[in-house]
Amino acid sequence: MTDTPESSPAVLGLPDPAGLNEFEALPPEQWAGHRRILLELFREHIYGQPPAVEPTITCDLRERVADACEGRATRHQVDIVLGEGALRLGALIFVPNDIASPVPAFAGLNFHGNHTVDPDPRIALPRAWVASNRAETGCDSNTASDASRGLAAARWPVERITGRGYAVATLYAGEIDPDFDDGFANGIHALERDPRGRGSGGTIAAWAWGLSRLREAMATIEGVDPSRIMAIGHSRMGKAALWAAAEDLDFAGAISSGSGCLGAALSRRCRGERIADITTRFPHWFCGRCADYADREHELPIDQHLLLGLIAPRPLYVASADQDHWADPEGEFLACVHATAIYRKLGRSGLGLDPSDDAMPPALPPLNRSVGHDVGYHIRPGHHDITPLDWWHVLNFADRQLKRPGH
Ligand code: GTR
Q1: pTM, two decimal places
Q2: How far apart are CA 11 and CA 7, in angstroms?
Q3: 60: CA distance to ligand 1 center in Å?
Q4: Any catalytic annotation for residue 34?
Q5: Rounded to the nearest whole angstrom, what is the distance from the C-alpha of residue 162 to the centroid of ligand 1?
Q6: In the annotation, is 76 catalytic?
Q7: Which residues sit opposite 245 in a β-bridge?
Q8: What angle do CA 304, 338, 1 make, to 5 degrees?
Q9: 239 Cα nearest atom in ligand 1
Q10: Do the Cβ atoms of 306 and 289 come closer than 8 Å?
Q11: Which atom of ligand 1 is nearest to the CA of 111?
């Protein structure tokens, strides 16, 4: 894609609603104002407002065993309790044993239940609705069962992650908000104070909100460094991870895999999944106004490189797969390229590539080669998934960005 005209910012007409192009460098106090403008635009046009609920949580430790990962990690099962117990979110948290000081960590949502992440029968089954898909969830009754224990273990290489000196935590997204169009009657939406309007947040905003609660729960666990928790997610959970880190500055950064449309991919390229597709199939994911941009991507006042820019100057990693055309891997890469302009204004290097540096826009890196600095990117061969190879690149990136001497 070395010279596709679509990739140039001029042809894409990428918007600059916060007037960032006027600045060579942005002092941190000025960036805060620009950042607020951008965040509000994303709330107003795409994700909606965060759930209008009392944010206070309490943590109820249900299990703590030191024999996870053949004795090399401690597993915690914690119920995150909202209000008087109107909603309980079950968090599954692994922390390496034998650590000298608190470690950095990853927080991510899973698709079908914590029990799918690790086959250990002591891991609680989710109480919430799960999709009826026998291959992935082992059930056809919207109720989780033992049949799906460990089915998503390849996406969560817990031994490898903890073995590299990181804690990792997950939560079943459906406990925050079940993933179907139910008129926002259940999950966290059932607890919302205000009547809902076109600007109210959808399921992605709810999941992002839940990721912040998972971050808070992790911060109560011995051995986790609360200042070094990164949001991570694949696909729809990647969209949620990016939005969570945009909304919540206490995340140390974000990692997305195959997050695609209204995740890391530029909308104006109109490649792969488009806004018309996503708002038709998943009308509950975004705010009411988002569907107005179906087939009108060029009218959006923002584009997804600015979502990535909302994570600046914190570390950001984007992973793509070359067969994942629906997620538009090139669009994900180019969003990183254009987000780099913001990282640079904040004195960081970003991806280290800037489209304005060269006559030609930067080309996708070779397969399996991780590129970048505080913005990292790789594209691997294969399909829409997060694999141990993706995690290997992510862990190497985290080593460079989050590790300190000793940990
Ligand atoms: C697809 C959707 C994508 C992505 C994916 C997933 O059906 O079109 O935007 O979120 O689901 O989550 O696996």
Answers
A1: 0.96
A2: 7
A3: 32
A4: no
A5: 28
A6: no
A7: none
A8: 100
A9: 10
A10: no
A11: 12
Beta carbon of 155 within 6 Å of any ligand 1 atom: no
Ligand 1 within 6 A of 262 CB?
Answer: no
Per-position pLDDT tens, the chain of length 407: 333 444 455 557 899 999 999 898 988 889 999 999 999 999 999 999 999 998 789 999 999 999 999 999 999 999 999 988 889 999 999 999 999 999 999 999 999 999 999 999 999 999 899 988 877 788 888 999 999 999 999 999 999 999 999 999 999 999 999 999 989 999 999 999 878 899 999 999 999 999 999 999 999 999 999 999 999 999 999 999 999 999 999 999 999 999 999 999 999 999 999 999 999 999 999 999 999 999 999 999 999 999 999 999 999 999 999 999 999 999 999 999 999 999 999 999 999 876 666 555 678 999 999 999 999 999 999 999 999 999 999 999 999 999 876 66
Q: Is the CB of 257 under 6 A from ligand 1?
A: no
Q: Name the pairing type of β-strands 371-372 and 375-380.
A: antiparallel
Could you identify the residue written with the tokens 């968090």?
91
Distance 400 CA to ligand 1 centre (A): 30
Catalytic residue among 200, 212, 235, 259: 235
Distance CA 264, CA 332 (A): 5
Q: Which helix (H) or strand (E) holds 392?
A: helix 388-402
The total number of residues shown for the chain amounts to 407
Tokens 């792969």 map to which residue? 272
Tokens of 42: 């994303």
Q: Mind listing the domains of the chain with CATH numbers?
A: 5-402 (3.40.50.1820)
SS (H, E, C) 259-304: CCCCCCCCHHHCCCCCHHHHHHHCCCCCCHHHHHHCCCHHHCCCCH
Instruction: Assess whether the C-beta atom of 242 lies below 6 angstroms from ligand 1.
Output: no
